[in-house]
Amino acid sequence: HNILRGKTEMVFLVKPRKLIPFGEQAEVTMRTNFWGTLWACHALLPILRPNARVVNVSSFVSKKSLDKCSPELQATFRNKDLSEEELCLLMGEFVQAAQAGDHTAQGWPNTAYGTTKIGVTVLSRIQAQVLTETRPGDGILLNACCPGWVRTDMAGPNATKGPEEGAETPVYLAMLPEGAKEPHGQLVWDKTVQEW
């Protein structure tokens, strides 16, 4: 069966991040992490075979960042009826607010990376719902996952997991057996569904 693993990811490193205006960080990080995932899924989801598995790489930071949002934004992101179009508008609003310098006053967390990962996690839930509605019986499962804090160029040498350990959850989701019904539309970390 098809396996699609979405890994478009970037974060500004600590020292250069201080030199780059937050609005610019928000725009570039959103374009890579959220919009890149969205565009890849738009191109590839329509051609998936039955029983395909889609794994979007998110982060546990998405949940921490969600907890730092205003109660109104938290409720919006947790709303099961939120559409992809509405989510895209929200991600655009965050970038605009970040560029204006008033994102925290508007209820957003002070993290571009974390906000993009909120977007990827919620997008995964929405796309899973759409697949269930538009391709019932095809057995396609789509999830977001957190590989953990993995030693990469982005996370650095002090991260707690090696690449092999970081691959465990994405591979687990990609290899869910035919006939599996879940997880679907979830955030999975250490092979465990996380409460959102």
UniProtKB/TrEMBL annotation:
Record keyword Protein biosynthesis present: no
Keywords: NADP, Oxidoreductase
GO molecular function: carbonyl reductase (NADPH) activity
Protein name as it appears in the record: Carbonyl reductase [NADPH] 1-like
Gene source species: Sinocyclocheilus grahami
Domain of life where this protein originates: Eukaryota
UniProt record similarity statement: Belongs to the short-chain dehydrogenases/reductases (SDR) family.
Gene3D superfamilies in UniProt: NAD(P)-binding Rossmann-like Domain (3.40.50.720)
The UniProt record lists the keyword Transmembrane: no
